[in-house]
What does this fold into?
Amino acid sequence: MPYREEDPPFEDNGLNNWCEELWKNDKNRLTPDQDYELDLQGRTRFSYDGPDMAADPLFASVSREALARPTYKAFVALLDNYETATGVAEEVTPKELRENWEFINACYKTDCMRLCYQYLKFKKIINKSPEEFKQELYDMWFKMYRRSRETRKFDSSGFEHVFVGETRGDKEVIGFHNWIQFYLQEKAKNVDYKGFMASDRNPHLLTVQFSWKGEVKPKGGIFIGVSPEFELALYTVCYMLGEHSYKITLGGEEVIIKCHQTAGKIGTCYPQLPRWQGRRK
It folds into this structure.
């Protein structure tokens, strides 16, 4: 039976144990109040035109040294490679193709991606060598597909939607679940943080509202301070286990990870606090 949005989150002790191991091995995760500082300000509510409860940016500071680490640097290089609007064809240049592979290769050297490969191999979801899986990983995240029903153009990819963000119509931001992109777009004055909707004891996870280039994300779950390789590994495993909503713990704190397909590829993956389950974004 296909996954339905209203289905309860799927719980699996094996997956949960792996997620905790992944969390322990995210050696490039940043430390709150040391590598970055947040200014949460006011609590807002779900609305496309709701009150702006934050006069200042979400990120008060982020360590430059942290963003210079190899996987972070390779990740940042990808963020200007995409057209914002769905329905607009993406063109992958040779330089962008090279940058994609530099990111995959940098992540592949980390413990997070080693754990990703080992878990999928153990679960018999893949039966490939590490090098063969690397190509599958690339296709999974970077191969273009059509997201807009109104066009035949290849206008999206899993990486673009989840990590960079897209716009749909004239008022809505979709995807955009990465804190590094959020921080850099705040610095560029393209993101207006409007307040948080949920926080928890886990300082690495928030539900926030913001506008991007004048278009609104009324509610979005976002990890804070985790490394690019951690998110790549976590979302890859959850996606390859099947389109679903997964209830896990990270550092002992409950998190919901949601995965959806589009055109047989990664449509979206994102985190939510358990009390903020809702419709796909």
Observations:
- Residues 13-46+58-272 form one domain.
